[in-house]
Amino acid sequence: MATPYVPVPMPIGNSASSFTTNRNQRSSSFGSVSTSSNSSKGQLEDSNMGAASSIEYSTRPRETEEQNPETVNWEDRPSTPTILGYEVMEERAKFTVYKILVKKTPEESWVVFRRYTDFSRLNDKLKEMFPGFRLALPPKRWFKDNYNADFLEDRQLGLQAFLQNLVAHKDIAN
């Protein structure tokens, strides 16, 4: 049985690239993500944590902070999701959770945890709402090990592409 994970504030600063992983570096542990003192820029918010709910938290800019010229155009841009990693959970049943960083502005970001089935349900709903538009979702695996590290890394890359295509589509993102 895996130990329950605790939401941790993500450092907000130069870029999210420090959280990206490559194929040689395993991203299966969320505990290795460290926080920085930049967390004083925002206020941590926890959502209610039920048995079936996902964990979410965000940072908000201070009210007194002046508008940075670099962030003026961020309002026109969609949020940019980045999959930071995954963790195989073994609570009641074994499943994989993907950790996603969403940056709305340089000062405002949050992290959500989602399973593959959440992406699949979202894709099904998008097919209903936008019948002419198809997003490529990595395939479900039926007969082999779903917890193989190479498979999970490939799926993570596929889910990242799915999210990028999702926010790039003007009808869906707006």
TrEMBL record:
Supply the InterPro entries for this chain: PX_dom, PX_dom_sf, SortingNexin/PXDomain-PKLike
Membrane topology recorded in Swiss-Prot or TrEMBL: Peripheral membrane protein
Q: Which domain of life is it from?
A: Eukaryota
Report the PROSITE patterns cross-referenced here.
Answer: PX
Specify the protein name: Sorting nexin-16
The alphabetized list of GO BP terms reads: early endosome to late endosome transport; endosome to lysosome transport; protein targeting to lysosome
**Which protein family is named in the record?**
Belongs to the sorting nexin family.
Alphabetized UniProt keyword annotations: Coiled coil, Cytoplasm, Endosome, Lipid-binding, Lysosome, Membrane, Phosphoprotein, Protein transport, Transport
Q: Where in the cell is it found?
A: Cytoplasm; Early endosome membrane; Late endosome membrane; Lysosome
Where is the segment annotated Disordered? 1-79
Q: Where is the composition biased (Low complexity)?
A: 27-40
Q: Name one molecular function that GO assigns to this entry.
A: phosphatidylinositol binding
- An example Gene Ontology cellular component term from the record? early endosome membrane
Keyword Phosphoprotein recorded: yes
Renumbered to this chain, the Polar residues biased-composition regions fall at 14-26
Task: Fill in the subunit field for this protein.
Answer: Homooligomer. Interacts with EGFR.
Q: Which parts of the sequence belong to the PX domain?
A: 76-174
Q: Key word Ribonucleoprotein present in the record?
A: no
The residue ranges flagged as biased composition, category Pro residues, are 1-10
